[in-house]
Each structure stands twice: as structure tokens, then as C-alpha cells.
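# nightly structure sweep
# worker-07 picked up a monomer target from the shared queue
# config: single-sequence mode, recycle default, output format = C-alpha cells
# input follows
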Amino acid sequence: MPFIKIHVPIGLDHLTHQIILRELRKNLVSILGIREDHGHLVIYESPLTAREVHKNRDKNFVFVEIQMFSGRSDEIKEALFLKITEIIKKNIKINENNILINIIETERKNWGGRGGIPLSKLNLGY
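# output follows
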């Protein structure tokens, strides 16, 4: 049940948002082995005036936060990093050095859903 937040500079058209979200969802299913109807993806936009980076960096960076269940291999995480970078680079046309990705892993017992039930008590199929 990953939750993915993609922070981008303001100004992308809505079609680009939809393409990125669609491509990411498709690849979450194949890389993480989740069901197609699982996972949440959100794009957040912020103006350059609300972004601060080191002078050698570009304020047009993209930051991706992935919150997901713990336990996936380093190889799966690397495949996810590479695919996310590819999708963003292709659709936003920024240098891959300005794409940052962070995975935050938590145990299933720390997720609640479906009316407040700990997800560790549900069989999600993965």
C-alpha cells in the first residue's frame, strides 16, 4: 500500500500530471507486485519562491517521497528509483541530478485503513 508524494515546481500542465501518475501506477504494480487498485499517488506543486536549495542546485528539482511497507529488497528499491527517475526525466525534462527520491518504510501494523483496521490484520495479497 504505497503512498507516493511527488513535489514538483508549479507550472506543469494537468496532462503531464496525469501521464506521470499513470506511468508510475503501472510500474508500481510491476515492480512492487501490488494490486492495480492499491496505492495512492499525489502531485504537489510549489512556486520557486517557496523552494530553497544550495546555490549549485536547481530550484526546479523534483522530490519524491515513497511511504510503503517494510521488507522489500534493495534490488526492488533500486529498480523503483531508476523507473521513477526515468518517468520524471522523460515527462518534466529536467536533469536526473535534480530528482531526489526517499523511501520511508514502516511495518504494516503502523498503517490503518478500511475503517481504522491495522493493515497487518488484513490480507492484501502482497
